[in-house]
Amino acid sequence: xxxxxxxxxxxxxxxxxxxxxxxxxxxxxxxxxxxxxxxxxxxxxxxxxxxxxxxxxxxxxxxxxxxxxxxxxxxxxxxxxxxxxxxxxxxxxxxxxxxxxxxxxxxxxxxxxxxxxxxxxxxxxxxxxxxxxxxxxxxxxxxxxxxxxxxxxxxxxxxxxxxxxxxxxxxxxxxxxxxxxxxxxxxxxxxxxxxxxxxxxxxxxxxxxxxxxxxxxxxxxxxxxxxxxxxxxxxxxxxxxxxxxxxxxxxxxxxxxxxxxxxxxxxxxxxxxxxxxxxxxxxxxxxxxxxxxxxxxxxxxxxxxxxxxxxxxxxxxxxxxxxxxxxxxxxxxxxxxxxxxxxxxxxxxxxxxxxxxxxxxxxxxxxxxxxxxxxxxxxxxxxxxxxxxxxxxxxxxxxxxxxxxxxxxxxxxxxxxxxx
Length: 420
Known about the structure:
The chain is mainly α and 420 residues long. It has 19 helices and seven strands. The N and C termini lie far apart (64 Å).
């Protein structure tokens, strides 16, 4: 990998941030202060291109980038629409998992494991990443290369960079893509991918490509679109570099006792595994949790009526790939099924199935929680850590099951409280 350009060296300082709205490969590095304060976003796309050209010239890109590549960029209106309708925020956990961890994914994934045994043997030895996780990412990102995306990556990234909501994130990705082009690591003709600018078999964003790409087939170039070996090796290198713990799993599904003390567990926080063992949490086969020294977080994606998980540090590594807990659970569950695990069994009681709340309904709930003194942050319609904490605090005060989930009891009780 050629990292000789001035821009690359200016962008190397890492930050632990991954834009939560992306559903594809998602990593970002910090801009220096002068660049970070210079947004290119503008409702007038032509003016935005002028801003981008100035930014690229300041960063020292070649005339080919500033006069030819940028000149040919055009907006894609559908990109903004897709950005606002991501399934992580429009589906229940059960809907999300069933749409992604399918019999097809499991069957073909097992075939891929067998077909590429020698490669996975090497990747496990060199990078310490168990093969089932690499195949799981591969299946979830592109259905094993079947759907790599056909949108112009340049146009997609520019469209998102010109939108004010997340301009800096996508501007950085666009600049790093310019670096790849200037360094001749990619050609403009290759640049097809997702609406969010993710590319190839494993859907890498430009920043990930720039920092972690590996020419594993030794042909003198990295081709994440056509070379499965390059793509899978780059994925193994990435996971290794961001902290995957080889001897540990991502987490596990567990069973909570009927009298589980929800009031003793804050969500999005880690506790020793022994803490959960002491609260009566068991494996799904009713065996006790082990005495292994590891930190764990309890996560209830559908509230107390749905499946329960203990998440270990490797789960955070998966989240660095894509900052969605539903996505990360899909990776873990599919990986388990690829090596023989039966996977989840969802409850069939229709009365207890969580319904999908619209973004507008969630914004209203968040605003109401704020009014009542339960701080959920700026209402955004997303059931995230602040919302879970606010809902849990409200539930504790009103003697509800404190699972942090926006269920019907929460909505009803809030309305009663506000109407008093």
